[in-house]
TrEMBL record:
Keywords: RNA-binding. One of its GO terms (molecular function) is RNA binding. The lineage of its organism: Eukaryota, Metazoa, Chordata, Craniata, Vertebrata. Coiled coil: none annotated. The keyword RNA-binding applies. This is LARP7 protein. GO terms for cellular component: ribonucleoprotein complex. Residues 4-117 form the XRRM domain. It holds the Pfam family RRM_3. It comes from the Eukaryota.
């Protein structure tokens, strides 16, 4: 089904410098409230965070000063037209992801690919240099 429209759960984060990774943002906000999804591209200065409930978004907005000072972020809850457009974007992105063709491997092809990956990992491990230090 995908995410269902709930008003007041999307918080936009704006930063003066590139934001850290998706996981770091989620971890920073998960301390305060339950984060459903962080939508961003690597190196962006703004992102959207979807929370489980509107109450979670409000908790983050209330404790926003602490996070803002620590990370130099600006928070804004999406409402009205901006919120509608963002929910439309969520549905379009989800549809695009689901319609992507994916490579199907079966039987021996799958086994050969798996064996090749294992062989590659093993050769990478054995090609590492072992360094011994002298203890005097």
């Amino acid at each position: 089904m995908g995410p269902q429209f709930v008003s007041g759960v999307i918080v936009k984060i704006i930063s003066t410098e590139p934001l850290p990774g998706r996981k770091q943002i989620k971890d920073a906000l998960a301390v305060l409230a339950e984060v459903a999804y962080v939508d961003m591209l690597e190196g962006d200065t703004e992102c959207h965070v979807r929370f489980k409930t509107p109450e979670d978004a409000q908790i983050v907005m209330k404790s926003y000063k602490e996070i803002q000072i620590k990370n130099n972020w600006k928070f804004e809850v999406l409402t009205g037209d901006n919120e509608q457009r963002y929910w439309q974007k969520i549905l379009v992105d989800r549809q695009a992801k689901l319609n992507q063709p994916r490579e199907k491997k079966r039987g021996t092809e799958k086994l050969i690919a798996k064996a090749e990956r294992m062989r590659l990992e093993k050769t990478q491990q054995t090609s590492k240099h072992i360094r011994f230090t002298e203890d005097n």
